[in-house]
Amino acid sequence: MNSNPKPTPTPLLIFILGPHCAGKTTLGTHLSTLYTLTHIALGRELRNLVSAQPSGPAARIASKLAPAVLLELREYVGAGTLAPSSPTPMYVKERVFPEDVGGDVRVLVDGFPRGVDRWTRFRECIGEEGWLPGRMWVVVMGVDREVGYQRFLERGREGDVF
């Protein structure tokens, strides 16, 4: 029997930023597998959240949001545009720091934040107790506009705006 306890993973929070079709989710999938991180593909999760039957964490969080907030999110996501500044950071906070997680945060979020307003609101939502000094990282990706546009067309997701 091994008497050495399994080491507790160091808390870690990574954000991947970049334009449409830069490969954020692809990179996030690979990194989350390599480093045992929970991967939150925000666009996919918001589409799940506003669907008729949200599933997984989106279903749990949907029950915490006011109907008017869900309606507002549904309108933006349905139009394929950037979700509003207020509910998106609240959703990310609930996903990154669910009530039962304690300090065991090992999360990678792709597609958030898309602006300083969302980052500021996220910081307000998590407060100082959610701040992980030296353990929060940002990866910024780029893509040639024509390559990104071609990937966008190939994706063919209805309602998306490039």
Task: Tell me about this structure.
By secondary structure, the chain is of the alpha/beta class. It has a single domain (19-142), classed as P-loop containing nucleotide triphosphate hydrolases (Rossmann fold, 3-Layer(aba) Sandwich). The chain contains seven helices and four strands; from the N terminus they run βαβααααβαβα. It has a four-stranded parallel sheet with strand order 2-3-1-4, sandwiched between helices. Helix 5 crosses helix 6. The longest helix has 13 residues, at 67-79. The chain is globular.
Provide the fold topology.
Elements: E1 12-17, H1 24-34, E2 38-41, H2 42-49, H3 57-62, H4 67-79, H5 87-96, E3 106-110, H6 116-126, E4 136-140, H7 145-155
Parallel strand pairs: 1-3, 1-4, 2-3
Helix pairs in contact: 5-6
Protein name: P-loop containing nucleoside triphosphate hydrolase protein
Instruction: Pick out the low-confidence regions.
Output: none
- Continuous helix count: 7
DSSP E strands, number: 4
**How much helical structure, as a percent, in the residues?**
40-55%
Most strands sheet: 4 strands, parallel
N-to-C terminal Cα separation, in Å? 56 Å
Strand fraction band? Answer: 5-15%
